[in-house]
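Components:
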Amino acid sequence: MDSFARRLLAWFDQYGRTDLPWQRERTPYRVWVSEIMLQQTQVATVIPYFERFTERFPTLAQLAEAEPDEVLALWSGLGYYSRARNLHEAARQVARGWQGELPGHIDDLMMLPGIGRSTAGAILAQSLGQRQPILDGNAKRVLARYHAVDGWPGRTAVQRQLWEWAETHTPHSRIADYTQAIMDLGATLCTRGRPDCEACPLGSDCQARQAGTQARYPAPKPRKTLPLRETTMLIAQDANGRLLLWRRPPTGIWGGLWSLPEHDPDESLLDWCRESLGLEASEPTVGPEITHTFSHFRLTISTVLCRAKTATEVKDRGDFSWDLPEELFQRGLPAPVRRLLEAVTEPVDS
DNA sequence: GAATCGTGGAC
DNA sequence: TGTCCAAGATT
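Structure:
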């Protein structure tokens, strides 16, 4: 047993979790159900669902005979509902093809729907004591820091490296405890935000800690380039270029809504529009622009193409009014301007 | 390789 | 309040 596993197990004996519902009566079936529920789901959330589920379906055979609707009903609120469908389907396959016993070989286990390598390893390690590595989010974080593994764990090469370390450190005895220990360490000390390295049993050997770079591991998922957002604005300015009013195109976000002229006169019109539209303040492209100048004001139709601040959809802010044009434009407006307004604001079928 | 699935928590 | 993330697997 290497020092990683030895120190981890010594820590587990003192601080590890031993009272979780699926740790009592650790049968393959119960461990399986728990592992499926725990995929991308935190322990505190899972516990009541696990209790209800195993109370209703104490055995694999009972689950296999259940109605799909009832299985889903017990899952409702937990999310990732394909997990429930896969669990039920796998139970039926096991009842039919494996005499009702979960297969004890990892390759057979992984052929069942919803069971990947890490889940299969966890089931075999925790319920049967088989020497199988796991690589869940906790283990990834612990191993990435301990060995200073660079790169986003979602990448194949990084994942392969982490699996190698997971295999290397998995001891030949106390497998169930070790598996629980590495997850407990990740969940309680080696956390994503502020790891408690002072209390970590691996502290002196952790490469990230030695370098003081704990926060860099594991590397975050690369950011996607933010989407381009295009909008056409109808803008009314006075003779000095100050904004009077502007109206969004009839379709798309804030379609047809009029904006109040609340911007600081010293602020450029473009900056104000960018801010209002949730656009990033860098390198906007101002497309075709049509300006009509009249005695007291000028009217501009401008297309702005700009990278969004966020990838998420911008929501209606609710501080726009529908009835301003009646007051300010429709009355006493030069006929050419009115025609221009109607052309721009008229609904577009596309 | 990237998108998708879902809900709740942390910052 | 937005963003990322959590005991991943599947397409």
